[in-house]
Structure of Meiosis inhibitor protein 1:
Amino acid sequence: MASTDIVYEQVHFRHDPKWSVRLRSAEGGGLLFCVACAIEMMETEEMPSVRKCFALSSISGFLKSSAEALRELFRQDHRVTLHFITTLLGMLQTQEDPVTVEKVDQVLVQLLLEFHNELPFHFVLDEVHKQLSGQLSGKRLLPTFSFLGNLVKTVPNVAHSFITQYGPLLDHLCSALAYPDEALKTSVVHVWLQLMQMSGDAGAQYLPIATRDRLCTLLLQTFSNASSAQLIKNCAGLLWQLVKYEEAVSVLMSSSGGPLMCDADEDVLTNNSPSLIQDQEQQPTDHSLLPLLLKKLLLSGDESLQVTSAKCIAAILVHSPSQYCALCIKADLPGFLFDRLASSSSEMLLWSIYSCLVLLTEEPLFFSQCHSVYGIESLVRSLKEALQLSNLEAPKQGFLLLTEILERQPPGVHLFPSASGFVAVSEAVKAGVSSSCLLVAAQAVKAATALFRLNHQSRPVQYQQLEELVEAISSRFPELILTSPSLRRSMGNKRSSDSSSQTFRSKGFLLQALICFQAACRLAEECASEPALMKNPFTAPYKHSGAQDSLESVCQCLLRCCDSVWIPAVLRTCDGPPSAQILESLYSILCSQFVLLPSLMPQFAKKLVSSGFYRLAVEHKALLCSGNRNPNLNPACCGFLQKLSMCLLFQSDPPCGSSHDFDEVETLLQCSLPALRCHLSDWPSLLCEYQEPRAVQYCLVMMLYLALKQGDRLLPDQAVFSSVVVLLQSVQEQGDCVLPRSVLRSALYLLAVTQDRSPSLDGAHLNYVSKALSSCQSFASLYSHHPALLHFIWRYPELAQKYGALVLELWLAKKSQTGARQDTQSDVNTESQTQQQKQNQEPDWETSELLALMEKHPNVMLTLLDMVVGGQAPVAEHVLHVLKVLLLGQREFATDLCTSLRPALLQALQRISVDNVANGPGQGHAAAAVSVLLSNRGLMDQLQTVVSSSSTPSPPPPSCAPLALLCCSHLLLSSLITLQRVHSTQVHKSIIWSLDTAVHRLFCQKRNTDNLLLVSYLRMLQALLDADLASPVVCLSTGPGLVGPRPLAPEDGALYPLGSTGAQCLLITLSGLLMQKHELLLRTSVNCLNSLLGFLKRKNPDLAKQAVCQPWSQFLLYCNFSSGEKCLLHPALLRLITLLLQYGSTAVLWEPDLLHVIDTVERSGIKELNHEAARALRSLLAQVQSSVPLPAEDHKLRVRKLLESLGPQTSAESCSVSSVLNVGDVSLCMSEFSLKTP
C-alpha cells in the first residue's frame, strides 16, 4: 500500500472494503481512500497533526476532483456521513494546530456544499449549538465561529434558515460579542455580517426583535472598543447591513453606547441570557454614539472604511431625514464629509459623500450652522476632480449636491461674497455642462439654474461668467436628438430602443436647459431693476457701453441664443407630441425678451410672427390647455401672445390710436386670452356666433390683424372676410355699444387685405360696414398704410364718397413723412442727379399704387386734383409728383381714361397755378410747381394737342376738344404764362398758338361761342398782353389779317404780332362784350381791356390814347349809365371809367358822368358797397383827383370825403377772393377773375 493512500494501516484490515475506494486526487494519480480509516485517524489523539492535515488535504482534493465517487461512497450509510461530520466539528474545538483547524473548516464547508441536497445542514447547526451551549472557553469557540461564517457564506439557504429557525443560536452569537477577545469578536461579527449579506434584502427583518435590538447595541459597544483593523472593518460592514433597515437604525441612533458589560471571569458564555445587556438603558438621542463612530471611520486612512461610513450615513438619513439629520449635523458630520471631499479622488467615496450631503441639506440646521459656506469650496474642487473620473455617477451626484445647496441656501447668507468664489463655481458648472454624459450635463444645468439667483451673485455681478454659462449650455443643443423615434425609423434608423433612450435624455436636457434660461432671464430682469447691479463699478466708464461684463451684453446673449438656438430646438420637438413643460418654459423665456431688450423687440416680434408663432401658441393652447389641463402652460402662452401683440401694436405705422387705446387693447387681451382654447379652424364659427361679452371675438380680430400685417395668414382670406362682416352685422343688429377703435381699425384692415379673394359686399353688408366706420369720429384713427385699404374704399362708391378723399389724403401724408426722411438721408445724392436721371427713375411704390388705383378707379384723379388746391403743401407736392409720373408716360393708360381725366387734370393744374400767383412769387411751392409743369413734355404735348384742335377759324372740326378741356387748357396756359414770367422758370417746350384765329373767333364768332370759352380766350389774351405777346411758354403765330401785308407798316411792326388791325378788332370785341350781363365775361373783358391798353401804351402811347377816344367808349358809357343805379356801382363799370380816365379818354366828363356816380354813391351809402366795389370806387376817385379838373371847391371836398370814408374798408386782405366757382364741368378760382386795380 502506497504511503499516500488515505488509510489507517493499524486498523484498516478491520474495515469493510465497501468503505474503500480508489480515487483520483486533484494532483493526478489514483489513491486509496477509506472512510472508516479517515474517521479513526481524526478521532485518534495520538495521530500526528501532520498526518491528519495531510488526510484532510487529500479529502479536500477528492471533493474537488471526484465528488461523485465520494457521494456514492457516503450514500451507503447516512449514519457514517453524519458521524464523519460530527467528528470534524469536534476537531474544531479540540485541535490546537491552526493549520489542521483550517483544513477541518475547509473540508466541512466542502462536504456541506457538495451534499447540501442530501445532508441536512440543520444537523450541523444543531451540533454547533450544542458546542456553544457546553462549558467551553471562548478561545475554543473561535474555530466554530469561523466555520459558521464560512458555512453561511458558501452554502446556499443556510443564512435564511439560520436567522428564521435558530433563535437560541443567534443569542449565542450576540453573547459572544460581549467577550473581550477581539479575535473572537472579529469572527462573530463576521458570522453576523455573512448572515446579513446572504439572507437577502429582508434578512434583518426576519430577526427576532429582541435579538435585532440586542445585536445593534452590542455592535455599537464592540465597534466603539475595537482596535484591530479587521474587527473595525467587519463592524463597519455589519453596520452597513443593519442601517438598511429602519427599525435597526432607530435602535442604533438611540443608543448612547454605554460601557461594555462583561464578567470578571474569562468564560462569559456560561451566562448567555439577555441579562448581559438588561441594564443598558437607552440614552437621549442627542448623545448618540453612532455618528461619532461614523466620524471615526471618516478620519481613518482606509478608503473602504470611509466609503462604508458615508454609505451608512446616507442609509440612516434616507429612513428619516427629519429625525436624524439634526443629530448628524450636531455631530459635525457635514464638516468631516466636506473634508473628505477635499482630499479624495475615489469615485465610490465621492459618490457616497455627495449622497450623504444631499440628504443633510434637507435640514435647515445644515445652513444655519454655515456648513454650506464652509464646504462650498471643497465641493467645487471635488467636482473638478470628479469630472476627470471614468464613472460619471459621481459628478452627477456632485452636481445634485451643488444644486441642493444653491436652492436651499438662505438668501441672507451669501455663498460667494467674492468674485473669485463665483467664478470658481461657474467654471465647475461649465465643465459639467460640457460633460460627455448628457445626464451629468443635465444635472449641471440644474445647478446653473440655481446659480442664476440674485442672492448667489457676487458684488460686482460677474456678467461675463453668466453669459459664458448660457453659451455653454446652448452649445449642447445641436447634438440633441429631439425628433420622434417613429420619424427616425421612417428615415431608416433601426436602433429604436437606443434611439428612444437618446431622445428621452435629450428632451430631458432640453427641458432643464430651458428652465435654466428662464432663470437667467429672471435674473437679468432683477438686475435691471436695481441700478447698482446693472454695471460693474470697477469697469471704466468708457467701457460700459457694449462691454462683455455688462448686463446689456448678457441680455443680448440671451436674445441671440433664443433666436438662433432655443427656438429651433423646441420647434424640432414639435415634430412629435409637444411637451407642455418645454413649451411653458419657451413661452416664458420669450415673454422675458420683451422686457429685457425692448429696443430690439420690434424686429424680433416681426420675425416671430412671420415664423408662425401666433399659430403655434394658439394651437398649443388648444391642444394642451383645453379642459383646464396644464394650468401653467396657459398663462405662459397668454403672456407671450399679449406681449407680442402689444409690441406689434406699438410699432404699427401709423401708431394705432392713443394711450387709452393701447390700455384698452391690453386689458382686452389680458381678459380674453385665458379663455381662448380653441383651434384656429374653430375661429370662423366663433366670430360668427352671437355671444356676450364679445371680448373673445374682439381678441380674435386683433390677433388676425396683427398676424396678417406681418404676412401670417392664420385663416383663409375668404373665411376672414366673411367672418368680420358677420361680426360687424351682429354687433349692430344686437344693439351693442360701438366697437373699440382698435378693433374697428383691425376689422377694416382685414376686410381690405382679404377682399381680393372674397366676393364683393352686397348692399346690406356694405351698409353694415359703412355704419361701423361712421361710428368712429376720426377716420384717421382707423387708417392703415396699406394699398389694399385704398382699393377697398374706392371699390365701393358709397365708401368712396365718404372716405375716398380722406384715405387719399392720409396716404399722401404718410408718403410725405416717408419722403421727408428719405430726402434728409440722401440730400447729397439728390443734388448730384441730373434732371434726366430723376425722370428715368422708377416711381416709388406709394406712387405706383396710386397710379394703379387710378387705372382701376378714374374718379380718384378728380379727388386728387381737388386736394391739390385745398390740401396742405406737402400733400399737394406729392399729388404733383403723381401727376408728373402720369404725364411723363412712365405708365401706359387707356385712351378712355386719358379722355376722362384730361379736363379735370388741366383744370386742376390751372387752379394750382392761379392759386400760386395769388400767393405771391416768394413761395417755393409755387416755383416748384411751375418748374414741374413746364419741364413736363408730356403735359406740353397734351396742351398743344388740345389748343391745336380748335385752331381753325370756323366751324369747329369734329375732332375739336370738348369745351371743358379747351377751357381748362386756355386757363392753364394763361396761368403758366403769368407764373413763368414771375419766377423766370426755364421752358423746355413751347406751345404754338394762332393769335389771328383767336382774335377772329372773338371778333366774328362771339355770338356762337360759349361764354366760358370766351372767358378762357380773353384770360389767355390778357396773360399774353401782360407779357407783351412774347412769352417762352407760347409761340404766337399771326397772319395778314392782323398785321397786314409785308413789308409791315410802322404801326403794325410796333404792335407785332397783333398789329393795328388786330388791336382795333380786339377793342371792338371788348366793347361789345362789356355790354353783356354775364358776370365772368364782364370781369374778364375789363381785365383784358386793361392789359390791351397797357400793351398799346408801352408800344405806342398815341395809339393807346386814340383807342380810348373812339366813339365806342362814349356809347358804352351811355348804355351802362342808363341801366340803373345798381349797374352804375358795379365794380367792372367803375373800373372801366377809371381806365378811360387813366388813358385820357374824352368820353368821360365831370358832369354829368362822374357827378352822377358820386351822387349815386352818396345816396346809397358807402356801407352798401361790397369790398371789390369799394376798391374800384377808391381807384376811380383817386384817378379823378389826379387827372380831372373839378369846377368847384365843394366838388373837391365831396371827392375827398368819399375817399376818407373808403379808406378803412378797402384793405387788400379784406378784399381778397379765394372761393371756387363751378361752371358746368369747369371749376374756376375767383381770385383769378378779380378786377385789377392799381
User: Anything to note?
Assistant: The CA atoms of residues 825 and 993 lie 44 Å apart.
